[in-house]
Design brief:
Number of domains: 1
Strand order of the largest sheet: 1-2-5
Number of helices: 7
Strand content: 15-25%
Number of strands: 7
Largest sheet: 3 strands, antiparallel
Structural class: alpha+beta
Order of helices and strands: EHHHEHEEHEEEHH
Length: 158
């Protein structure tokens, strides 16, 4: 039996197809273009399926929990749970690990992401770029990541 050793990579996913809000924002930028030209200029991404290594790293991000027991009053016991799970940072990691290519997303005529796949960039370079994205752009890219990795999305994986 020959098992697939490499993760599946998506076809280009047009962000306008998965987010009506993104489509509306993009339509404002493409206003006045013929439909065929407008379609060719739409932002797209290519995403890969998460590997087991990605799954482990993601679980590590979510597993930072600490429970503290202290003697707070006459009953002698108080419990507090500290959860160190920054979901925005997790989203950024998920994109970093799986984003393979981005098309038609530019700033000042240059691609926003100068190197692809994203994980060949240094983490600091990626976070600098990601942090400057319009929130709707980042959310929609992440929606594509989750769409291609449904076990990361509890709503899709039900």
């Amino acid at each position: 039996m020959d098992l697939a050793l490499y993760p599946t990579i998506s076809e280009p996913i047009k962000l306008a197809d998965i987010s009506p809000a993104f489509k509306s924002l993009e339509d404002q930028q493409l206003d006045g273009l013929p439909d065929e030209e407008r379609d060719a200029k739409r932002v797209w991404v290519v995403v890969r399926q998460a590997t087991e290594e990605d799954q482990i790293r993601r679980t590590d991000l979510q597993s930072k929990r600490e429970v503290r027991y202290t003697g707070a009053d006459e009953s002698g016991l108080a419990v507090s749970e500290v959860i160190d799970d920054n979901w925005r940072e997790r989203i950024q990691h998920e994109a970093y690990w799986t984003l393979q290519d981005v098309g038609n997303l530019e700033r000042n005529g240059k691609p926003v992401f100068p190197k692809m796949p994203a994980n060949i960039m240094k983490w600091e370079e990626f976070t600098s770029i990601w942090g400057k994205l319009h929130p709707l752009v980042a959310q929609t890219i992440h929606r594509a990541v989750r769409q291609f990795n449904p076990d990361w999305d509890w709503q899709q994986a039900k």
